[in-house]
Amino acid sequence: MTQITHWINGALDTKKPERTGDIYNPATGKVTGTVAFGNTATVDSAVSAATAAFAEWRHSSLTKRTQVLFAFRELVQQNKEKIAALITAEHGKVLSDAAGEVTRGLEVVEFACGIPHLLKGGFSEEVSTGVDVYSIRQALGPVAIISPFNFPAMVPMWFFPVAIACGNTVVVKPSEKDPSAAMFMAQLWKEAGLPDGVFNVVHGDKEVVDALLVHPGIKSISFVGSTPIARYVYETGTKAGKRVQALGGAKNHMIVLPDCDLELAADAAINAGFGSAGERCMAISAIVAVEPIGNALVARIKSRMAKIVTGDGTQGSDMGPLVTAVHRDKVASYIEAGSKEGATVVVDGRDLKVDGDGFFLGPTLLDNVTPKMSVYTDEIFGPVLSIIRVNTYDEALNLVNSHQYGNGTAIFTNDGGAARRFQNEVEVGMVGINVPIPVPMAYYSFGGWKNSLFGDSHAHGTEGVHFFTRGKVVTSRWLDPSHGGINLGFPQND
Questions:
Q1: Which residue ranges make up each domain of the chain?
Q2: Distance (Å, rounded) from C-alpha 101 to C-alpha 103?
Q3: Is the peptide bond before 436 cis (omega within 30 degrees of 0)?
Q4: What is the mean pLDDT of residues 232-246?
């Protein structure tokens, strides 16, 4: 049985933990290991290591940082299948999906390899006689990353490559449900030549999170998770004087206009709704069918759902289990609630039969969903697609804009005018036009609007560089006899 502990100052923590948590294989329901739960003292130790390392790393040359990042990129690429296997074993998503997750994380590492260009400042010569002004961006110090269970490799990689490239040191708190990927990447960082203490991993629950949020040595918090926790992280972290980017929940709509290719739209709905068993913050969970195409779209989605193979993610399945039994039961309760509130259960994932004790729930399709139903208002985070029928584009747009979440959305249409209007009018952070999951590339930034984001900076891209650095403006004049004399007036630009 695997026993996972903390990674502090370039080595495994050897202290016996006071508390541990079980790690499950969601496909079998069996406990496969334990993870040490840290406490305030553990966080102190990690932050102390990060603080000591920062004194040296912040002064490392841009060339040195880039070399380490390149080496790390190569090691992750070489070990992509191993990392994917760790993800599947603890999260449950199928191997191909896990490998794709690693690839998307690698894109951020590749983006961060261009950090010398991204950290360039500005220079203005002779703003006054003999006076120059220039700007620089400097690292914050030790920063914390609190990542969710659904992307144990990719989400931390949204943040730590950019943070480290900018000269910061990092303390990562991965989900206690699937911590192995973060631990493996810690070892790869060491192999890549990253100095000890620059990258640290601390495991635990709310005690560790709270300790990071208020620790005076932590300069920023990067978080991804549910909206209630994101709000708590933002409020607690900012109250403690930290800059915070807290990415929260989502209810991503896919608007299907009557002019679109319904075959492609149905394929997209399947892929975006049931990939990773719906445990994606960018999963499509609400399909808005603009009549008269509702019946035709539902029929096409239903026929495709019958072909989805749900099972162990290592056995060639299309869709794996949910992450825990508790979460599986919670998702199932939404299906029951939707049925009681008047939705039509077209396909019921609760009827799925899979051998063993894994945490499985089959793909589910609900029709005739209304905006007041809990299956529509709440983020379900499971393989449940809801069909909401409307009569006009304006009704569809109003649904999206009225929802508390504003993470991502998509529109399927062949009408360029409608698409252009939609991208302009919709109130979300990420928009797909005939693209169901519009996750930006690493050189753009990931993040939503409204209750999907707390803070003013999205993840990775130039916003990530801005988040992990502080601006400084220097006004300089080198001594010259003409500078002498007393002058109490405000400086003049002469």
A1: 2-248+452-474, 252-433
A2: 5
A3: no
A4: 98
| 252-433 belongs to CATH 3.40.309.10 | yes
94 and 318 in contact (C-beta within 8 Å)? yes
Sheet of 123-128: strands edge to edge?
123-128, 131-139, 469-476
For Cα atoms 269, 275, 280, give the angle at the middle one, nearest 5 degrees.
100
User: Is the per-residue pLDDT at 488 higher than 90?
Assistant: no
User: 56 pairs with which residues across the strands?
Assistant: none
**252-433 matches 2-248+452-474 in CATH topology:** no
Q: Which of 477, 467, 472 is nearest to 135 (CA)?
A: 472
Per CATH, the homologous superfamily of domain 2-248+452-474 is Aldehyde Dehydrogenase; Chain A, domain 1 (3.40.605.10)
User: CA dihedral in degrees (351, 281, 240, 218; nearest 10)?
Assistant: 110
pLDDT tens digit string along 134-187? Answer: 999 999 999 999 999 999 999 999 999 999 999 999 999 999 999 999 999 999
Catalytic residue among 113, 166, 260, 281: 281
> Which of 221, 140, 240 has its CA nearest to residue 173?
221
User: Does the active-site annotation cover 281?
Assistant: yes
Residue 493 confidence (pLDDT): 62
Residue 479 pLDDT more than 90? no
Closest CA to 10 of 64, 56, 50: 50
Distance CA 134, CA 137 (A): 10
pTM: 0.95
Residues with Cβ < 8 Å from 471, sequence gap 6 or more? 135, 136, 137
Looking at the predicted structure, is the pLDDT value of residue 490 above 80? no
Token pair 């016996």 is at which residue?
16
38 by DSSP, 3-state: which? coil
